[in-house]
């Protein structure tokens, strides 16, 4: 595998994470017009699972950097004739693409792609990893609080099926944050420390809500939407008990009035739309790294 691939946050040291966050910040200021000085940077976006934010913010980042972009559509490809995942990606390598952005429902799909030499940027693998979501979450927290060290973060909802919870837990702990989890018992994950939601909303600097991952089999059929919100969601009453400086995050897509009261999506403490904008900045930074460019110097 190419050394500039990004499959998991564990591929990055703490210094490399801070360097990517710094590049993302500079893409929003002194390097906003920076483009890849390459004759050829042809990127293939290969999404084998639906996406809005990750797909189109990668595409925005690629176009802003001056790349040429091709979108793969599994439904009109030879996948429908039985071609394997590996053979599909190998084909893209052989026909001349320079980087791949891949989302696939199989956890750790990238382990099947060890022999691919083109850099791979993981846009989400099953319930495994979502490194660029994690980076945009870190950037959002860093912008808000200046540092990740000592931050208290609670992640609430369908923890078991969430690659966002998985990537954020290990990374935030490495960055010196404290992370707790809450949600239905059925969706707890071994080794993920829990805290009752009503206690957590008063404890946390960041309350991160997650949707129910129905596409991975998650269901709580015995609860209505209203009951789920009251038991496990961010209600107005819980929001009002958050610390004055605390913020609400959500990787989205959010399901209004299920895991979060609809009015809270646009509430003053919400940073949900800032997260989306930060997604383009971190994806520009990881694309720059994938093409082998060193971290920016401060101007
Ligand atoms: N947060 C996230 O991964 O959203 P999409 O599924 O829309 O890409």
Task: Give a summary of the structure in a few sentences.
This protein has 299 residues and is α/β, with parallel strands linked by helices. Helix content is 34%, strand content 14%.
What does this structure look like?
The structure is a single chain. By secondary structure, this protein is an alpha/beta fold. The chain is 34% helix and 14% strand. Helix 2 links the parallel strand 1 (42-47) and strand 2 (68-73). The protein is globular and about 55 Å long. The two termini are 33 Å apart. Bound molecules: phosphoric acid mono(formamide)ester (CP).
Descriptive tags:
299 residues; single chain; binds phosphoric acid mono(formamide)ester; 8 strands; four-stranded parallel β-sheet; alpha/beta
Named once each, the bound ligands are: phosphoric acid mono(formamide)ester
As an assembly, this protein is: single chain
Query: Helix and strand succession?
Result: HEHEHEEHEHEHEHHEH
Strand content: 5-15%
What is the approximate shape? globular
Q: Which structural class is indicated by helix and strand composition?
A: alpha/beta
How do the strands line up in the largest sheet? 2-1-3-4
**Helix percentage range:** 25-40%
**Can you count the beta strands?**
8
Ends: how far apart?
33 Å
Write the topology of this structure.
Blueprint: H1 14-27, E1 42-47, H2 53-64, E2 68-73, H3 85-94, E3 99-104, E4 120-125, H4 131-145, E5 152-156, H5 163-174, E6 178-182, H6 197-203, E7 206-209, H7 225-232, H8 236-240, E8 247-249, H9 272-290
Helix pairs in contact: 1-4, 1-9, 2-9, 4-5, 4-9
The protein binds phosphoric acid mono(formamide)ester.
